[in-house]
């Protein structure tokens, strides 16, 4: 009997919580199960249907810049609750939760780096932080990034992913639309290029300010880009709206963006574009 128990097949213990490795991701579009290592090697684009999954700021830097070239500039400015805003929870509590989730003080990461050897200043919005909403810190970091680019003579690239202005900062968040627009003028005055890369989603006050005033505006395939939602627009203009009118491909066909670029080709595309605009040669 003891020998029988020894050779009896044991059922594997079920792992739960932190013990379970996060190995797979389901594509939001085609529902295909994707092995995370393969997904990362494919720039987080579904190999079956081509859907571009959303990236956090660190992943975006990894996809765009040369390995080891990124030097962070942001992180010293932290948000405050200037208006003592309270809805279902206090604004400081919301901030603490978002900061714990993302590991950064606000919804943006800025720094310098190279793309195939071409130097640039980069700002990346993080949708994982409170929907990438634009508050005072986001506006300040973009202004500082623009000033850094102008001071060091590098092009500026901003990758947007945002639901718009942050309601918990009310008028203070709306002021960032003007602040960022004015800051970007320093680049124009020095003849330095500014390239905007619109990712899913880019909406609200971000679309209405710095995201769409670039020298060259790129977008990722299928990205949602707009100011207000379809229902609000339809109620305002009292007309039916065409299918997919707020997607990158529709905006390209109507001249609102300059190119829709697959994420897997963005590094080469940006290097070629920035090299042309700054008269530098990118590495092959």
Observed structural traits:
single chain; 284 residues; alpha/beta; 7-stranded mixed beta sheet; two-stranded antiparallel ribbon; 35% helix; globular
Tell me what the structure shows.
With 284 residues, the chain is an alpha/beta fold. 35% of the residues lie in helices and 16% in strands. It has ten helices and nine strands. It has helices spanning 2-7, 36-41, 57-64, 91-102, 136-152, 170-189, 204-207, 230-237, 248-253, 266-278, and strands spanning 24-26, 33-35, 71-72, 108-115, 118-125, 156-162, 194-202, 216-219, 259-260. Strands 3-4-5-6-7-8-9 form a seven-stranded mixed β-sheet, with helices on both faces. The protein has a two-stranded antiparallel sheet with strand order 1-2. A hairpin with a 2-residue loop joins strand 4 and strand 5. Helix 5 (136-152) runs parallel beside helix 6. The longest helix is centred in the middle third of the chain and has 20 residues, at 170-189. It is globular, with a radius of gyration of 22 Å. 38% of the residues are buried. The mean pLDDT is 93.
Could you give a short description of this structure?
The protein is α/β, with parallel strands linked by helices and 284 residues long. Helix content is 35%, strand content 16%.
Set down the secondary structure blueprint:
Elements: H1 2-7, E1 24-26, E2 33-35, H2 36-41, H3 57-64, E3 71-72, H4 91-102, E4 108-115, E5 118-125, H5 136-152, E6 156-162, H6 170-189, E7 194-202, H7 204-207, E8 216-219, H8 230-237, H9 248-253, E9 259-260, H10 266-278
Helix pairs in contact: 5-6
